[in-house]
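This part of the workshop introduces the protein records we will be handling. Backbone structure tokens are a discrete shorthand for how the chain folds in space. Once this layout is familiar, the rest of the handout is easier to follow. The record below serves as our worked example for the rest of this section.
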Amino acid sequence: MSSADDDTAALAIGTRILAAQPFSVLVGARLTRFGDGVARIEVPFEPNLLQQNGFLHGGVLAYAVDNAISFAGGSVLGPSILTAGITVAYHRPARGPIVAEATVITATRSSAAVRCEVSAVDDRTGDTLIVASGHGTVSLVNRPDTNQAEEPR
């Protein structure tokens, strides 16, 4: 199997996982890259995702950071992961669809440190701008290579 075939298969798996998340479906998120420590999630600019001033809601930006970080970490650690923590910095209002791209910085057998940038095309200027960024840690749960602890006697 070629590298392109591996990438296509990984993206198909990731897309199925994203589709199983009701909130991701609610916001219209799409996974457009997944594998080798990198994930890209796109979220549309829809009226039901805006805050009172007409910008994409900060909660949607934080969601994109969190999920992109989780998918990037999961591409290295496997599917049995949870976000252990994230930080999000908002840099400017999002005036268009967003793209969150996360990259694993470093990983061990049980956790990964990941960074993420969220960009948007400004509807007024057409420029692509970084609207938010974040860092996070993803932890493996139920590690398959760990021996189960014995039951207390």
Notes: The radius of gyration is 17 Å. The CA atoms of residues 70 and 83 lie 6 Å apart. The helical segments are 3-19, 22-27, 58-77. Confidence is low (pLDDT under 50) at residues 147-153.
